[in-house]
Amino acid sequence: MAQGPVLALAAVFLVILATPLVAAPRRENAPHSYGSFLASRGDTHLHSLNSDGATNISVIADVARQRGLDWVVITDHDEVPRAGECEAETDASFLCIKGQEITTLGGHVTALGIPANITTPWANYTMGEAMEATYAQGGLAFVAHPFEDSAASDYEYFGVYENYTGLEIYHGYAGWNQNALSSDMDQLAVQKWDQLLNAGRRIVGIGASDSHNANDAWDQGDLFTRRGAVGYPRNVAYLREFSERGVLEALERGRLYVTDGPELLFTLGGAIPGDEVQAAAGSPLAVILDGVANVSSTVRLIANGTVVYSQAVAAGTFNLSTSYTPGQDSWIRAEVRSFNGNLLKGETYLAFSDPVFIDVPPYDAPPSPPTNLSAVIEGDSVVLRWDPPPDADLDHYAVYLAPSPSTFDLTWRTARPRATTWRHVGAAVDGGTYYYQVRSVDDSGHEGTSAELAVKMAFPVVPGPNLLSLPIPVLNASVASVLQTVSHDTVRRHDATLASPWKAAYGTRPGPLAVIPTGSAFWVNATAAGTYAIAGTVPPSVTVLLKAGWNLVSYASHTPRSIAAALAGIPWTRVEVFDPGTPPYRLRAAASPDLLAPGAGLWVHVTADASWTLTA
């Protein structure tokens, strides 16, 4: 196997070690199916003065930068960072991500990437409730210091509620767990992790300092409180983009390794940690183990909980290669360990990767998709609902959102609920347009696909007449429901297919206009500026009937097109669009090259009857 890209990546790691201050995110070209990634370093568990930490968030961020970190997650006890605190520290080369350490009856959950505080009546708040509240906000839920006391008391929820993203495997002061001053990393957490992986669960293992004082020394932390220093240990995560969502996606996928010093590049069959490789049973897969050891160390491969390769290396750069031949579905991860046995420091100079997963024939089939996806506006939120698939191994759902129907990818994952409903809090009033997909995920982490799309569309409203439309099917097409976000007193719709084409509704008074059909447009007299928000499903196409003469209709597509392209094959002569700056009718004639925005209302004049079919 060619090692050029791998050796280049190891060289990049050496540069990173020698660079104390982050100037920009580092791009690494790892040899795997996803292409180029950003290698970034971060700490997922930090406390500030907002709870029981000794320093403010600004100091934490400064220290993190000095120690070569690209991002941090602030996880104060039962409180997210206050407005502006994290935002002030975020720039093009450093991310301050909001989080919270949630106190529950069963233990602590670190909620990563949540925008708002999760109120925790911890005296009766369960681990499961904390995790679901985290996922409802689009965050990730990790079990904090899972064996700080004992597996039989504080963390007895294991086996009862298992919807956590992952575990803090290497936590705080090096090697500290209930086995006291062990020379091993957190042994009980590793054992639990291996058990979960062997059971087919794709649980992510991360490192977390749990720092309560940013001024603690880099390689010491606080022995007596069992807490590490900022970045000790840290996660080296492979990002698809340098952003908060990029960090969260890498953490959820397990696309990372954890270290308190060594560098470790591990690939299996060209795949990096968090990936899955499909391979024939009995066919060897190339293993590359490159990196940098701080002291004389041992490099190991762990397959299904068993050491299958071990090689001593001297301090400095190492470049190793071997192979692994799977006989069944497997997982395999790598370690660099010093085993120094220093009683007062625990095991320092340690790095371990998350697993690469191997799928042998018969290859695992992805789970079936959920069905009957719907979206409605309820108060300030968009609520998604769907029917579950019949799969017995279904674990949860992945909810995606994107600004257009063609931009979905892995980084747009937003939530992972177990329930068949999800609430996008605040989305109904924020003025944005969002497209949604919901996919099934089984208990081995395999994710299905979905052809169903839902959408929430938003259009600005100005005082006075506004030309709006209904480009999507909605569950409730009544005038009151469709216009629930608009302050108005009159609605008038023109239907060219009727002998008397104008129908109206007047505020709360009954009128001949009761419902608004999909594909139609209408005039609304708004009494205040605001936003017209609608939510529904995205059909493959919408057909609008046009009658000879003038027609008031919606551009019921989700793809911007020129008027010439949108009306190709239609005998049109003139199109007029809404323009609030053109008195007195707020209309202007549009030319053939002008683009039609998704959901725009417009007047179309045609010389003969026609059916206008618009694809999504």
| Span between termini | 45 Å
Helix content: 10-25%
The CATH class assignment of the largest domain is Alpha Beta
Beta-strand percent range: 35-45%
Which consecutive residue ranges, at least 5 long each, have pLDDT under 50? 1-34, 150-154, 174-184
How does the major sheet shape up? Answer: 16 strands, mixed
Count of extended strands? 41
Count of domains: 3
Looking at the structure, what is the overall shape?
A: elongated
Average pLDDT score: 86
Gyration radius over CA:
28 Å
Looking at this structure, what is the CATH superfamily of the largest domain?
Answer: Metal-dependent hydrolases
Could you give the topology of this structure?
Layout: H1 4-17, E1 26-28, E2 37-46, H2 57-66, E3 71-74, E4 95-103, E5 108-112, H3 127-136, E6 140-143, E7 166-171, E8 176-177, E9 180-181, H4 187-198, E10 204-208, E11 234-239, H5 244-253, E12 256-259, E13 263-268, E14 276-278, E15 285-293, E16 297-303, E17 306-313, E18 316-324, E19 330-337, E20 350-353, E21 356-359, E22 371-378, E23 381-387, E24 394-402, E25 413-415, E26 421-424, E27 434-442, E28 454-461, E29 464-469, H6 479-482, E30 488-494, E31 502-505, E32 521-526, E33 530-537, E34 541-546, E35 549-554, E36 561-562, H7 563-566, E37 572-578, E38 587-590, E39 595-596, E40 601-606, E41 610-615
Parallel strand pairs: 2-3, 3-4, 6-7, 7-10, 14-21
Antiparallel strand pairs: 1-2, 2-11, 4-5, 5-6, 8-9, 11-12, 12-20, 13-15, 15-18, 16-17, 16-19, 19-20, 19-21, 22-23, 23-26, 24-25, 24-27, 27-28, 28-33, 29-32, 30-31, 30-32, 34-41, 35-40, 36-39, 37-38, 37-40
